[in-house]
Specification:
single chain, alpha+beta, Aminopeptidase, Alpha-Beta Plaits, 2 domains, 6-stranded mixed β-sheet, 4-stranded antiparallel β-sheet, 12 helices, elongated
Length: about 375
C-alpha cells in the first residue's frame, strides 16, 4: 500500500521539475486563433505523455484533438491547451513564482491541470500501478469547440466516466454543475441617408439594434438567464443615418431546453422599423452541465476516497462553460474542476496557487491508483 506521506514527499522532491514543465508550456503561447502555435504545443505534449500513454492519435488537421491512452479502460481525462491570450501576453504577465503564486498567461486556465495529471501519472507509474485510461487535449475549447466537437463526441462513445482538468472552484471545490453558454450575434441592415437633409429616407440600424437588444434582454431575464453585451459596432459618421450595425452578446443559462426556446425566439423576430432586416445567429454554444445519477455516485465515491486520506473536498456550481458539459450531455458521468485553484483567469494577471497544484497532483495520484474502484 502506497502511503500518503510517501506521495507527498515525492511531490516535494519533484517541485523543480513541476515548475520547469509548467514554465515550458506557459511560455509556449497557444491562443486558439493561432493554429500553428496551439497544434505545435499539442505535438510537444503528446511526445511528453507518450512514454506513459503509448497509444496516440491526432484527430483533425487545422483544429486538432490529441488523444493518448493506455489500454482501453472506461475513463477519460480531458483538457484544453488553447488560451484566450494573444501571442506576446507572456511579456505582460511573464512566468514567475512569487509568494506562493505562479503567474503566466494560461497557467491557471488550464495548463497547470495538464501538468498535474502528468506528474500524477509519473508517480503512479513509479509504483507500477498505472491503470488503463485515456487523456484528451482539445485545441479550441476557448472558442466553443465547434470544429472539434464531432471528434470528441466520437471518442466519448468508448467511455463512461469523464474527469476534467479545468481549474477548481474556490477553496479547491470540484465543479459538478455549470451554466450553459451562448455567444449570439445580432446583425441589423438598415438604410443610409443624410442625417440633416433627409433622415426620413433612412432606416437607422443602430436604433433598431438597441431596440432588439432591449427586447432580448427582457426575454432572457424572464427566463432567469444572464445577458451581457460584449461588442457593439455600427455607423460611419455622425451626420449619416447608419445602415449597418451588429452586437455580440454573451448569454448564460441553467435550464435544459433554453437554447431551443431561444432558437424559436430568433426564428420569430420581426423588425421594429419598416425596412430593417434583423438576423440572429449562434456564434458558439456550450450546454449546461446538469448532474446525473451516475455523476452523483461518482462524486460520492471520490469524496469518500479522499476523505480516507484526510483530504476533504466539496463541490460547487460554475457560471463558466467547459467541454465537460458536452461529455455529460453525451452520457458520461463528468466531474470537473480537478485542476488547481487561482485567480484572474482570462486576465493579464492570471495566476494559480502552487500549493493547490501540489494538492491536485496528490488527488489525481489517488484517483489513478483507485480508478477501478471509482469507475466500476
Amino acid at each position: 500500500m502506497v502511503q500518503k506521506k510517501d506521495i507527498e514527499k515525492r511531490i516535494e522532491d519533484l517541485q523543480g521539475e513541476i515548475l520547469n514543465f509548467l514554465r515550458d508550456i506557459v511560455e509556449h503561447e497557444s491562443p486558439t486563433s493561432d493554429r500553428e502555435a496551439v497544434n505545435s504545443l499539442g505535438e510537444k505534449l503528446k511526445e511528453k505523455f507518450i512514454k506513459y500513454l503509448p497509444e496516440a492519435k491526432t484527430y483533425g488537421d487545422e483544429y486538432s484533438v490529441f488523444l493518448l491512452r493506455k489500454g482501453k479502460g472506461n475513463s477519460i481525462f480531458i483538457s484544453h491547451i488553447d488560451t484566450v491570450h494573444p501571442i506576446g501576453t507572456i511579456k505582460i504577465n511573464p512566468f514567475r513564482k512569487e509568494n506562493g503564486k505562479v503567474f503566466g498567461p494560461g497557467a491557471l486556465d488550464m495548463k497547470a491541470g495538464v501538468v498535474a495529471l502528468y506528474f500524477a501519472i509519473k508517480i503512479v507509474s513509479e509504483h507500477g500501478l498505472l491503470p488503463d485510461f485515456a487523456f484528451l487535449m482539445n485545441t479550441e475549447e476557448e472558442e466553443g469547440s465547434s470544429h472539434t466537437r464531432d471528434y470528441m463526441k466520437r471518442i466519448s462513445r468508448d467511455y463512461k466516466y469523464c474527469f476534467s482538468l479545468e481549474p477548481s472552484g474556490p477553496d479547491g471545490k470540484l465543479k459538478t454543475s455549470r451554466k450553459g453558454v451562448i455567444s449570439l450575434k445580432i446583425s441589423v441592415k438598415g438604410r443610409m441617408a443624410h442625417a440633416g437633409l433627409a433622415p426620413e429616407k433612412g432606416v437607422n440600424a443602430i436604433d433598431e439594434l438597441i431596440d432588439q437588444l432591449s427586447e432580448l434582454r427582457e426575454w432572457i431575464s424572464v427566463r432567469e438567464g444572464s445577458f451581457t453585451i460584449g461588442v457593439i459596432r455600427g455607423g460611419e459618421k455622425p451626420n449619416v443615418v447608419p445602415g449597418d450595425a451588429f452586437a455580440l452578446v454573451d448569454i448564460r443559462f441553467e435550464k435544459e431546453g433554453f437554447s431551443e426556446m431561444l432558437n424559436e425566439y430568433m426564428n420569430n423576430i420581426s423588425p421594429v422599423r419598416k425596412g430593417a432586416i434583423v438576423t440572429m445567429n449562434f456564434e458558439s454554444f456550450v450546454p449546461p452541465l446538469i448532474p446525473s445519477l451516475q455523476q452523483r455516485k461518482l462524486y460520492t465515491r471520490l469524496k469518500n476516497l479522499l476523505s480516507g486520506i484526510g483530504v476533504e473536498i466539496e463541490e460547487t456550481h460554475s457560471a463558466g462553460g467547459s467541454d465537460a458539459s458536452w461529455f455529460s450531455r453525451w452520457g458520461l458521468a463528468a466531474i470537473d474542476g480537478l485542476g488547481p485553484s487561482g485567480e484572474g483567469a482570462h486576465s493579464e494577471n492570471e495566476f494559480l496557487y502552487f500549493e493547490s497544484l501540489k494538492q491536485r497532483i496528490l488527488i489525481l495520484t489517488y484517483i489513478l491508483m483507485h480508478l477501478k474502484e471509482l469507475t466500476p
